[in-house]
Design a protein that fits this description.
5-stranded antiparallel beta sheet; alpha+beta; 121 residues; PHb; PHb_sf; PH domain-containing protein; PH-domain like
Length: 121
């Protein structure tokens, strides 16, 4: 399962071009992470989960979460035997968090700092 949840950093400028049709006027991607098939976008307004579905991945769900809807979040750093870091995000009115796994090459503290910056507004 870990293989399918691992993420790596994507250049925000490249993500800005690739996902321009999803963004509102003036909205900027601050950070982006690519999973095997899916993408997580942190914009200056919201968090967007791009979920490719099906065998071909042609069907795509775009899940937009305004930062004000995030009630709390947690990060779990990588360890000696577990090389992946985890991010859990709780959305208002939902007891089950959204969970994403990041490879050791991704700075989970950077992810946490981005969320802190926008959730605290």
């Amino acid at each position: 399962m870990a293989l399918f949840g691992n993420a790596h950093t994507v250049d925000p400028a490249s993500a800005q071009r690739d996902y321009a049709k999803l963004l509102g006027q003036g909205e900027q991607i601050q950070a982006a992470y690519q999973l095997i098939r899916d993408t997580i976008l942190f914009t200056d307004r919201r968090l967007i989960f791009v979920d490719k579905q099906g065998i071909t991945g042609k069907k795509v769900e775009y899940h937009s979460v305004p930062y004000k809807s995030i009630t709390h979040f947690a990060v779990e750093t990588a360890g000696h035997f577990d090389l992946d870091a985890e991010l859990k995000i709780w959305i208002s009115s939902n007891a089950t968090p959204i969970e994403k796994t990041f490879t050791k090459g991704v700075d989970i503290y950077e992810v946490q700092a981005i969320l802190t910056q926008f959730v605290a507004k």
